[in-house]
Amino acid sequence: MSHGGNNLSNLWMLLSNKQVVDKLQSGGKSVRESWRTELPSTGLGVGVIEQMKDEKRKDVAWQGKCSGAVYIGGSECEGHFSLINEACSMFAHTNPLHMDVFQSVVRFEAEVVAMTAAMLGSKKKSSGGQICGNMTSGGTESILLAVKSSRDYMKTTKGIKKPEMIIPESAHSAYDKAAQYFNIKLWRVPVNKEFQADVKAIRRYINRNTILIVGSAPGFPHGIVDPIEELGQLASSFDICLHVDLCLGGFVLPFANKLGYPIPPFDFSVKGVTSISADVHKYGLAPKGTSVVLYRNHDLRKHQFVAVTEWSGGLYVSPTIAGSRPGGLIAGAWASMISLGEEGYLENTKKIMEVSKRLQKGIEEIPELFVIGRPDMTVVALGSNVVDIFEVNDIMSSKGWHLNALQRPNSIHICVTLQHVPIIDDFLRDLTESVKTVKENPGPISGGLAPIYGAAGRMPDRGTVQELLVNYMDGAF
What is d(CA 296, CA 272) in angstroms, rounded to the nearest whole number? Predict the structure, then answer.
């Protein structure tokens, strides 16, 4: 009887999710009916710019309202925005694949990599003095390349042919993607009570096929730095690779450290760290599509490259997943780092760290809410034992805020950027009002996403949830 009841419950949750997904898709379908499906018979010429401006005006008001997403402060039409836009347009036609032609962007990439490496411990004696890397299209590609290089390095050095990697459940979903792409068995291990990677639990999963373990500084969900030193000791003792995801923290933690914040060790100064990913397009304030992947030495990085000798088109070698790469984005990243310098990043870090602490204090002053763990940086996750946090998120969405919904435990977070510095009190006021609304009138609002998050979290069959997500994405384009 109990088993049948569970089946009925699962069926209800499946239907509930399907109804929400269908509703979301139907709304998108009506919008897509006006999308072009073929070339115009006569081109618009420069008139296309006005049409693009019209389309851009239809975007939601994101200024100061998004968790993460846009990290540069101020208006799109001036300041740092204008600087990197000009840098990108100046080199929009370039491609570093043609190293002999576009020598300028080749230099820009090398310098971005070297400057990022210096921020992350390359100048310290303990790093070994061989830190090297490349620029990529974003954190996901940086992680994919680090995983692929670790797999091939461990196959060469230890003969591992059935690779496995171990990650905490707080690690980014890019590792799941890497496991699928590169045929690696993935073990996702629960975090400890501080929401950090559980070193003892990870150790229990290590076997002769383990190629890689992972730590984050900080983790995307809760903004908490994993115990990188302990993970480094573990990796060293088993002679396996350790990747540190600094996609969020790479351009904050080094400066927060200099400002006196108690940041635990996280970079190449830690023995055992073999690779690091750091996004320049987040707190580096570079244009979207710019990240860096770094390795402790050239022996590791060589396994990132793909060289082809039997192609009729000639000899071919490419350093990253992409062949052709946009030199304009590389130039924009270089311009961002050179224009800001260490003083600029220190000033920005001071602002966002202070606002993050103000945010934590404000959340703790709302009786129905609590902060998840002890955030080390600029991501603050909040949960509740009193109200449905996903219903609170829906009310916040109705007020124009775009936050991230999390699971295990159910919570939401905001990733603080320079956009939030002038309006953090507005956020806290709206959050207080949203909690009050949900407490006085519990239950999902029309068009809200609380039902799908709530039902998906309770559904034990994760394959069904995965199918719903794929179906939603399949109908979005």
Answer: 9
Give per-residue pLDDT as tens, 182-224.
999 999 999 999 999 999 999 999 999 999 999 999 999 999 9
Spatial distance between the Cα atoms of 344 and 350, rounded to a whole number of angstroms: 10
Residue 324: both structure tokens together:
């052709």
For residue 104, pLDDT over 90 is answered with yes
C-alpha pair distances (Å), 30 with each of 23, 26, 33, 34, 35: 11, 7, 5, 8, 10
CA-CA-CA-CA torsion sign (329, 334, 337, 338): negative
Compute the distance between CA of residue 280 and CA of residue 286 in angstroms, rounded to an integer.
6
In angstroms, the CA 433 to CA 27 distance is: 28
Whose tokens are 């995965």? That residue is 466
Q: Which residues of 193-221 are buried (b: 16+ CB within 10 A; e: fewer)?
A: eebbbbbeebbeebeeebbbbbbbbbbbb
Q: How many C-beta neighbours within 10 Å does residue 30 have?
A: 8
Query: How many other CB atoms are there within 10 angstroms of residue 32's CB atom?
Result: 13
Buried b (16+ CB within 10 A) or exposed e, 139-151: bbbbbbbbbbbbb
pTM for this prediction: 0.90
The alpha carbons of the chain give a radius of gyration, in whole angstroms, of 23
CB < 8 Å & 24+ apart, contacts of 39-48: none
Instruction: Determine the 3-state secondary structure of 260 from DSSP.
Output: coil
- Within 8 A by CB and 6+ apart from 410, the residues are 383, 389, 390, 453, 454, 457
* Cis check: omega of the bond before 375, within 30 degrees of 0: no
Coil, helix or strand at residue 169: coil
Query: Of 82, 3, 163, 18, which Cα lies nearest the Cα of 456?
Result: 18
Instruction: Please tell me the distance from the alpha carbon of residue 189 to that of residue 261, in angstroms, as a whole number.
Output: 29
Rounded to an integer, what distance in angstroms lies between the CA atom of residue 436 and that of residue 433? 5
Say which residues have a Cβ less than 8 Å from residue 223's Cβ, sequence separation at least 6. 248, 375, 376, 377, 378, 379, 380, 381, 413, 415
